[in-house]
Amino acid sequence: MADRSERQARRIVGGVAVGAAIVSWWPAFTLGAWGGVFFEQILTLWAAATAAFVVLVLREGTRRLPRIVVASLLLPSLWIALAFLPTSEGGLLAALTTWSGVLITLIGFPFMVWVILQVTRPQVGEMVSTRAWVVAGVAVVAVAVMGFGLGRLHPYFLTCGDFKISGNAEPANCTPGERVLG
Q: How many domains does one find in the chain?
């Protein structure tokens, strides 16, 4: 039987998986429904990554995360810098900028949850098996993949009215109608 601290650590990992899945499903859905990740999702990640970077650089103590992890928190800022470059529509640089934003967001949100956990509860990483982290990662990826699938399949269970009333733009292939889920 696992001791109390091990059970608590597993509950925290479960919470991390749920939290990461919650923040990952919407960018995956928008990628499926609209073919892209919305700018506010990327900028939300940028804000969290920048704050985490500042905290990690300025924090005191002996436990430090690897420099590559700390440096990776600058990736959303790199995406913003790339977005400032002049591009021609349909060009390689425009595609690179778009897809780097998508990848940074889809991978970055769960990674950000993990980094925050490492900053706030570093002992959890030492108390939980690699298998538990893999299971948590698989759960997050599964939700993101299903979110993308739901985005692609939205015409079968959502109407244009569902998007309109939620304040979202209607995807090009939404099902006409005003029925609203719920």
A: 1
Helix, strand, coil in percent for the chain, rounding step 5: 75, 0, 25
* Residue that is written with structure tokens 């429904």 in the block: 33
Domain that holds residue 35: 4-165
Assess if residue 171 is contained within a domain.
no
Q: By three-state DSSP, how is residue 159 classified?
A: strand
Per-residue pLDDT tens over the stretch 74-111:
888 888 887 787 777 777 777 777 777 777 766 776 67
Residue with tokens 């640089």: 93
In a domain, 145, yes or no: yes
Q: Is the pLDDT of residue 114 over 80?
A: no
Q: Could you tell me if 33 and 151 are in contact, meaning their C-beta atoms sit under 8 angstroms apart? A: yes
Question: Is position 134 within any domain?
Answer: yes
